[in-house]
Structure formats: structure tokens, C-alpha cells
Amino acid sequence: MASEFDLIARYFTRAAPAGLLGVGDDCALFSVPPGEQVATSTDLLLEGRHFFSDVDPTALGHKALAVNLSDLAAMGARPLGCVLGLALPRVDEPWLAAFAQGFHALADAHGCPLIGGDTTRSAHDLAISVTVFGAVKADQAFLRSAARAGDDIWVSGELGAADLAYRLLDGQYPADPQRLAATRGALERPEPQVALGLALRGIAHAAIDISDGLLQDLGHVLAASSAGATLRYADMPVAAALAGLAEAPLRRAVLGGGDVYQLCFTAPAERREAVLAAARAASARVTRVGEIRAEPGLVVLDAGGRPMAELPRGFDHFPAA
Amino acid sequence: MASEFDLIARYFTRAAPAGLLGVGDDCALFSVPPGEQVATSTDLLLEGRHFFSDVDPTALGHKALAVNLSDLAAMGARPLGCVLGLALPRVDEPWLAAFAQGFHALADAHGCPLIGGDTTRSAHDLAISVTVFGAVKADQAFLRSAARAGDDIWVSGELGAADLAYRLLDGQYPADPQRLAATRGALERPEPQVALGLALRGIAHAAIDISDGLLQDLGHVLAASSAGATLRYADMPVAAALAGLAEAPLRRAVLGGGDVYQLCFTAPAERREAVLAAARAASARVTRVGEIRAEPGLVVLDAGGRPMAELPRGFDHFPAA
């Protein structure tokens, strides 16, 4: 059995890119281009809470970084690097190798090298903390407070697949191997919309990534912007694998389903062509799903234009008693 | 019972200092002075592994940040801010309030505001991840690889108290309330040597913080610098509370005891006066305990000048089988 330091060295130390000091000193060092700020986000992922114990470790390594890159995307920030904390209940080298492979592959794809970390033993559960760093010009970051009345509301990608996969894996729905196969990738290997975030700089106003469900995440934008919104349910980009679901689970997946890691963003109506051009440049799909209003409140209109009465809540780690 | 977002808002959101965007957006934003790099370090602390379940939460909030500030100190970096991930097995508001108070008090003392975070529920254990950011001029950072043959080896503060407190609390030694009272502060409320790190810029060569024990941490410096060292055991700054301990536990505490969060650093022999002046400016105690040698190997001389045969190993989360 290897020592802690051997383990770190074997799976997580790689040559640091020029200008960075990587794993193996008290701190990692990185540079920030003149005139840019550092954007940073941290997530703590726990076995049994954020992922199933038997999840594929390569997918888990991917997702642990993806959820943080998604936060950079939602600020319009360019990735610079990341640090990883890993608490392991046991030393399982094949597991570590697969986790590291998934993590590094996504890091490489986004130019976001692992530059520091901390590995320790846990008593019970696997715990993963990732902190990412990106660079953004101060006046170009998408703030939650920047939505303006009259802005279009856009969503990237598709909605609902991760929620359906989660409920199938959790046994909340009867086994359905075909639907699970069609949705599992959305849950376990989300693709952070970093390129779209960068392409939308100077075009979008507010942005947020859909981690807790569209309604809850958009609600944060509305609260920060002191604004309201109208959404059109019929315009939502619903994942094809949800076809044929009953109305209640469908609505819950589309409007309330978390773990999406697509962007919800607002942009002036006169920039619609620019939004579409940015999405094309980033090879992303974007769909216009509503508008920001000055009056507070979040209204979802059904296909007939009537406000929907029962709306799902988003995911909350500490639900009210 | 409050929602996750209420909890975060109540205990961890504070007005962000000028130039920073704090808790409440996808990312926190901070600026770095021109010509300086970002130094960053992350630690993942787990209940039962890094702290006892019944530890005073104010002390725990202090220590969770202190161990990271200590890494900035060991690079000679000035704190800029930090992010916190917190996984809680239950919502305990008095506990949260006390933890936040200990955390914020140390953050305030070092100008290191909490600018982002993630709070979640854990299945079993409390887990705390902290990532700190500091600023340092690229050519002034103390690297582990920078020790040179002929350098003096210095240690700040005192050695051994945290190890003794840990073993008393863990029941490895018979109860001794007086010794515990004299050593517990060193274990539970270490004071990171940030001011000393800053004062030593341009003077010290290599530095490391003593988290895993003097011999193990100095060993990392020697490996990175391709050098060896001679230490003089009789010169070690032993904590007064260790007086009267038997030789074996004393040696283990002084040379192998972790959780010290003092600095071990090297500096040219001709800069001794500058080192002492820097320590005075930082109100820190520093003690010269040995020299860097070109030949590899780490030798500790006893009071009679003979190499000590049995040396304790440092702390390792994954001890060899």
C-alpha cells in the first residue's frame, strides 16, 4: 500500500504548465492577465448525497470538475486552473486511476490544470472538494443582479434528462433501461458550457447555471435583480428521452430538475441575432423561453397562455421542516 | 428549520470588501495587484480524522482557516480571501454561529474575507473544505526547492505542544488536566505565521509549514532541493509544557509532532541578523536549529553531537501496510 504522498504523486501530479507552480509546494501559484479578475467557485460533493456509491469513477472525476467549470461558464470566465480535495474511505488504486483520468480529461479539454490538492482518509464516505479559478474582465462578468426588464430569458441545451436519470437510478420510478440509457449521460457526464459563456461576453446580462432546477436558479437571478419573469412552458427545450412521461413528472423534470449544468441567461431583445451567433460559434443550442419583467414574481404560462398553478420547487439540501 | 440558502445568508454572507464580489453569485471575484501571482492552497478537514467530534466549534472555525493561512505564510503570500465548503450531518444553529464566529474572527485578523462557499448535508461526518488565495511577487515566493547548502535552518514558535494535547485528548496518555490546559490552545487554535512569512520575503530561501512534523516536512524541502540537513536536537524550541516528559514521547512530540503550523525555513548564514529583525517586526520567536548540507540525508545530533539513531516518523494519513 502506498503512502499518501506516493498516491498524490502517482495520480494527480503532472507537469505544471508554464507560469504555474503545481502540486507539491505549500501553495500553487498562478498568474492572472493584467486587467482581469479571478473568478472562483468551490463545491463539496459527498457520496450518497451528490452521487451514488457505485457511480463510474471516471464519470465522477469528470463531474466533480464539470460542476465547478459550469460556475465559471455562468460568469463568462476563462478557466485558469483548479485544486482538488479528496477524502477516501480506503485506498483503491484502480478507482483512483479512473477518477484521475476522468478529472484530467475534462481539465485538459478546458485548459484548467490541477495545480494543488489535499488527499486524506475519511471514516465513512467519499468526499470531493473542487475549487476552480478563472479569469474575467471585471465589467464583463455575468452577475445575477444584471437582468433588466425586457430581457429575453434563454436556456442552453436541454432540460429534464438528469432529473429522470436520477429518479430511475434512485428507484423512484419503475426500471426502464431504455430511458435510463438515454438520460444517464446527462446526469453523470454533464458538459459545462464554458465556450458558450465566453461567446456571450458583451451580449448577455445575467447568467446562472442550472444546478438546482430552472425555477429555483432563475429565482436567484430575479431576487438579485429585483425583477420578475414570465416563462413559456411550451417553449422549453425538453430532452427527447422524456417523451411520453406523465405530465407531473415531466413538469417536475423540466422546471424543477437539478444537476443540469446548462446556462440560463438574459440578454436584451435587440441582441437575439448576436445570441444565436454566439451559440453557433460555441456549438451550443440555445432556446428563448421567456422574458424578464419589472414586476416581481415568476409566472410560467401553459400552452394556452394561462399561468400554471402548481410549480415544482427546486432541489434544497436542507428542506424546510 | 431554515433552508440552505437562509443558513448561508445568516452565518456566512457579509458585505464583500471593495473590489471583491462575495457569496451569492456563481463565482466570487477578486483582483490581484499588477506584478503579483495568486498563491492558493486547499485543505479538507474531516470529523474523527482531523478534529474530535466534540471540539469547540469556535476553535474549529478558527483552525479550519488557520491551517490554510499557514500555507500562505509558508509561501510569503499576503491573504486576499477564501472560500468554504461545509458538509453538515444536521442543522445546528448555535454550532454554526460559533463556527462562523471563529472563522470570521481569524479572517478579519488577516484581511482574508470569506468570498464564496458551498453548504450541504452529509450522511455521517462533518467535512470542511477551505481554499485560500493570497498574492505574492513571483520571484519572492518561498519554494521548497530553494534551500541551498550552507543555509541555516530556522523554526518559528515552539514545538511539541499540539502533539502532546492530541495524545492526551485521544487517551494515549493518562489524564493530565494541567498539561492539557497548557497545550490545548496550540492544537485547537494555532496562530498562522502570516506576518513572519511576509517579513521574511527577500531574506528566506525555502519555507514550509510544520503540519506533518518537523522531520517529515523538512524532508519535503530536502527532497525538492536535492540537499541534506543536520539538526541539533538540543537547540529545538521545546514548549515549556513538555518539561518532565519521558525521552521517547518528548522526541516524538518535538521532531515528529504534526499540527504545529509554525514555519520551518532556510536562510543564508550571512542573513542571521535580518532574520532576527524580521521576526522582531512580526512579533515572532525564531530559533536556529541546524544547517542545510549538500550531501543528502537528514541527521539529528544529540546534546553530545552524536547522530540520533531512532527518529520518529511524521504523520501520514495512509500509513504503509
TrEMBL record, chains A, B:
Catalytic reactions on record: thiamine phosphate + ATP = thiamine diphosphate + ADP
Domain PurM-like C-terminal: 186-300
A Pfam family: AIRS
Record: residues binding Mg(2+) 3: 26, 71, 209
Residue span(s) of domain PurM-like N-terminal: 24-136
CDD domains, per the entry: ThiL
Function: Catalyzes the ATP-dependent phosphorylation of thiamine-monophosphate (TMP) to form thiamine-pyrophosphate (TPP), the active form of vitamin B1.
GO MF entries: thiamine-phosphate kinase activity
Keywords (A to Z) from UniProt: ATP-binding, Kinase, Magnesium, Metal-binding, Nucleotide-binding, Thiamine biosynthesis, Transferase
Residues noted as binding Mg(2+) 5 in the record, renumbered to the chain: 212
InterPro entries, alphabetized: PurM-like_C_dom, PurM-like_C_sf, PurM-like_N, PurM-like_N_sf, ThiL-like
Organism: Achromobacter veterisilvae
The name this protein goes by in its record: Thiamine-monophosphate kinase
UniProt binding sites for Mg(2+) 1: 42-43, 118
Highest taxon of the lineage: Bacteria
Gene responsible for this protein: thiL
